User: Which sequence fits this backbone?
């Protein structure tokens, strides 16, 4: 059958209207047209493939002597800790010299772990309080989600391995909201990470099993739509009987209803994807299994274009979990206060390498996924991995262990170790990433300008 341009354009318009243009499979006959239409939209590469970002945080700093690569530029050698990434050397960058100044004390005394978690993606020094008057900043992932989240069924995905806390007394007078929530949609609203793999799966693919998922999803949408129709009809008849103050209160209530309605309309634009894996049966037995399962779900979220924005702390900042799977029975946080003891430093290096192995597992799988432009999903991603603490014993927030995997759709200079001559805010990196996502942001937290050497 001959190719007809008018048919291709019609198909393209339909998919855009359905909110699915950028999730097209690799159809060679349509690729140039898809790319041309998509290049003008935010959240995509110049070739029209989805551009993804993820932020993976590790707690308590690292053994920097075993982390830091040898050499700079393209002629660098991976350290012992980073050696699991050797097959992906040309697909990432290691950075030396980033800082998160918002995590520093600035007169507030102890509380580095809470401040680190709060400031890692916001660049903001959080208000020291254990009460309800928390104040932080909006995180980079949510800046992106608010501008490009409409392109996917889920604006963003917040993952974890531990239950979140949004109140209470945690690190030296800081609210637990700071220490347990990496993502913030506003200065006062954290986005709690979901630690249950089954809940994440059902959020991505619906509840039930097999064909039941789509049916259950449609049934829920129908029921919620019917309820909203009933509420709006009832409200219209009620308005005539109310005074001015009550009408104002009702308007506020209806604004919330309309917000839910908008969410339903968005959900109706997207068909639930097929997961390609069984629904998780429960919480994994070990921490390593838990991290990998969450990474598998992250891969599926990216592969099905369910979201393009993910945050995932492998453990909460200050975590004192043990690592029986690698023979370490002492708590991570306790070990991080190593006092230069050789045994402690060696065990920290083992934990650091264990976490890098999980990252390597994810990146290799991401690199095996082909996008519509012929590149890999890793090529069309920006994956930040690191900690807001350098040395856990010193609790310093400069000279941080940070790497960025993926080439941002071919716009990053990968395969190198970058060593800055002075401290550079992490938020400068985030501004550069937001620019590539087509997100408008002149400043983020303590940023001093967009990072150019990326």
Assistant:
């Amino acid at each position: 059958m001959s190719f007809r341009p008018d048919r291709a354009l019609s198909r393209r318009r339909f998919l855009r209207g359905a909110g699915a243009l950028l999730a097209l499979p690799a159809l060679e006959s349509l690729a140039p047209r898809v790319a041309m239409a998509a290049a003008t939209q935010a959240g995509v590469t110049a070739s029209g493939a989805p551009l993804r970002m993820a932020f993976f945080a590790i707690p308590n700093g690292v053994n920097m002597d075993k982390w830091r690569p040898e050499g700079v530029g393209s002629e660098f050698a991976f350290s012992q800790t980073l050696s699991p990434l050797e097959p992906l050397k040309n697909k990432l960058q290691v950075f030396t010299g980033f800082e998160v100044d918002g995590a520093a004390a600035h007169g507030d005394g102890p509380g580095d772990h809470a401040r680190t978690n709060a400031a890692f993606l916001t660049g903001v020094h959080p208000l020291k309080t254990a009460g309800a008057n928390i104040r932080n900043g909006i995180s980079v992932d949510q800046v992106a989600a608010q501008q490009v989240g409409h392109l996917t069924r889920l604006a963003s995905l917040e993952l974890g391995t531990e239950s979140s806390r949004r109140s209470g007394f945690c690190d030296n007078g800081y609210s637990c909201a700071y220490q347990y929530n990496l993502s913030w949609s506003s200065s006062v609203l954290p986005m709690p990470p979901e630690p249950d793999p089954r809940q994440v799966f059902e959020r991505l693919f619906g509840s039930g099993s097999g064909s039941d998922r789509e049916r259950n999803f449609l049934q829920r949408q129908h029921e919620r739509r019917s309820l909203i129709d009933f509420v709006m009809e009832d409200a219209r008849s009620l308005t005539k009987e109310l005074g001015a103050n009550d009408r104002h209160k009702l308007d506020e209530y209806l604004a919330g209803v309309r917000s839910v309605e908008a969410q339903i309309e968005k959900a109706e634009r997207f068909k639930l994807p097929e997961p390609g894996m069984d629904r998780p049966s429960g919480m994994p037995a070990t921490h390593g299994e838990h991290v990998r399962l969450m990474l598998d779900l992250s891969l599926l979220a990216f592969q099905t274009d369910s979201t393009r924005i993910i945050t995932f702390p492998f453990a909460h900042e200050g975590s004192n979990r043990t690592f029986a799977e690698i023979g370490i029975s002492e708590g991570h946080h306790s070990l991080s206060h190593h006092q230069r003891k050789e045994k402690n430093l060696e065990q920290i290096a083992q934990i650091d390498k264990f976490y890098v192995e999980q990252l390597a597992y994810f990146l290799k799988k991401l690199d095996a996924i082909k996008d519509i432009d012929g590149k890999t999903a890793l090529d069309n991603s920006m994956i930040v991995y690191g900690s807001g603490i350098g040395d856990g014993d010193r609790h310093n927030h400069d000279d941080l262990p940070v790497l960025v995997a993926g080439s941002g759709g071919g716009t990053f200079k990968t395969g190198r170790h970058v060593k800055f001559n002075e401290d550079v805010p992490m938020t400068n990196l985030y501004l550069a990433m937001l620019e590539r996502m087509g997100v408008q942001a002149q400043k983020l937290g303590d940023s001093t300008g967009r990072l150019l050497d990326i």
Residues 1-32 form one domain. The first helix runs from residue 5 to 17.
